[in-house]
Structures are given as C-alpha cells and as structure tokens.
Amino acid sequence: MEQPNRRFSVAPMMDWSDRHCRYFWRLLSKQALLYTEMVTTGALIHGDRERFLRYNPEEHPLALQLGGSNTADLAQCAVWAEEWGYDEVNLNCGCPSDRVQSGMFGACLMAQPQLVADCVKAMQDACSIPVTVKHRIGIDDMESWQEMADFVDTIATTGCNTFIVHARKAWLQGLSPKQNREVPPLEYEWVYRLKRERPDLEIIINGGINSLAAAQQHLEQVDGVMLGREAYQNPYLLAEVDQQLLGHTSAVASREQILLQLMPYVAQQLAQGTALNHISRHLLGLFQGVPGARKFRRHISENAWREGAGIEVLETALGLVLQETERLAS
Known about the structure:
By secondary structure, this protein is an alpha/beta fold. The chain folds into 2 domains: about 240 residues, Aldolase class I (TIM Barrel), CATH 3.20.20; about 80 residues, Up-down Bundle (Four Helix Bundle (Hemerythrin (Met), subunit A)), CATH 1.20.120.1460. The chain is built from 16 helices and 8 strands. Helix 1 links the parallel strand 1 and strand 2. About 40% of the residues are buried. Its EC number is 1.3.1.91.
C-alpha cells in the first residue's frame, strides 16, 4: 500500500470528524490525509465494529486513530485497520479527557514511554500499514524538552518514525479538555528542535494553526502540518490546500460547487435512513466570511433537525446565500 502523504492532514476530532464530515472534506481537498475520530480498542472488540470502522471509499487517504494501552488489543485492532483498508493506524497519546485517563489511554500514556513503545511494536508486528503516534509535548510535571525527546526516542526504537506533536502540554488535573486545547502555551520551537535534532524522523506539527499561510511557515521547519478546529469551523480553507501546499494545479471549486457536489451523497444517505442534521451540522461553516453566511447557518440549524427534513433544506440555504450575493451585486 502506498505511504500516505502527511505534509497536510486534518486532525482526529471527537464528535466532529465522522464519515459524513470526512466525505465533505474530501470534496474540498483530494490530497489531505484525513483521520477518524479516536476509536477505543474496547469499542472495536466489544462493540459494533462495522459502525466504527466503515467509511466511504472516497475518503482515502484515511487513517484510523486508536485509543488503548493493551498490546494484544491494539494488535488486533491494527489487523482490522489493515483489513478494512485504512492507509495508516495512529495511537492516541494526546487526548487529556477524564474518560481517557480512566481508560488508561491518551495523554496519560506520555508518562509510560516504554508501554507506548510496546504497544507500537505489537501493532507493527500485526499489520503492514504505517503505525504512527500523536502526542503532546508533555503532561503535568513533565515539563522539559528532554523528557519529550526521551518519550519520542523510546518509541522510535521500534522503527516508528512518524510523530504528530500537539505543541502544548496537557494538564491532566485542573483543566478541561477544551481548556487543554487553549490554555497551555504553544511551544512550536520544541517541535522544530525535535526535527532538527532527529532529522530521520517524520515530525508533524499540530496546535493553534489557523491559516494555510501559517501552515506554510511551519513546513519550513517540519515535515507536515495538522489542522484541527480551524478546518472544521472554516472548512473552505481546505479547498486551497492541494494547490498551495501539495503542489497540485487543479482548479479550486467554489463553495457553491462544493455544496452541489455533496448533494448526491446527502440524497443517498437520506434514502438509507440517515437524518439530515447528522450531515448538515458539518456544513455550517462552509460560507464563513461570505455575505449570507448567517442566513445559511440559521436556516440549516432551524430546519435540518426536523423529522423528514430533506435535501430542500440545503437547497434553500444555498439560495439564501445566492440571493444575498445578487443583492449586493445589483
């Protein structure tokens, strides 16, 4: 299987980066590497595996992010990741939520680098697709650059060479998950130094990046950039990723074209029993910064949840934007 290009990727985001959202993102960028929401090993082993693993073929390149710390369970899930056709499997060592800590996965694993190395090795032995790690620069009293470097070095002994680094610490006590995405200061230089001093490793930077211009600056220092919330809240910036960051020359589709391209998928999903708001909630930011954007959001928010809501909700919302554009042009 061809190695995925990690020069630009969209972060795994709980409750956000589901298969409907990823299908929408893929219309915007053909090349960006997309990640699933984090899926726990327990959910795959004991739950509805097909629901957690299914995706649309158009989503490739696509990585599965796992949460867990049991080597045998992670190995089994890595096997399933390959069998289902994912392009990469990623181990979450960065999520700071209480639920994650009680389950012994996520950011708390940074305190146990050898366990993480054992988990990564078990996954590598079980599958032939790339195994990568996403982590923070530290947790709680783990405050030095060297401690982060030692964490990476321990895992790198397995042959794992791709590390996605959220350039903030995680405080496991005292801060909520939302605060952990905003309060701890960003330390981009730590990530740059990691790349400088370990040039053979593939280092991807994550955290607080809110424009393609900023992404381009980071790419002068590291191998790849991962965007999270900005890609969700202002998804149209993904439309220029292929051209600006990945060297492709295809034309950039308009917001209207993207929404029209999505319509057949929405119709197909509605026919299969999917509620419109399960898809439309991901589209609210499509027209951000454009006249009529507020009307677009409001119409979808007020109508997509209603029983029997159909594709006409999106058509009407689009019409409101086009009317505003015509009004301002006249």
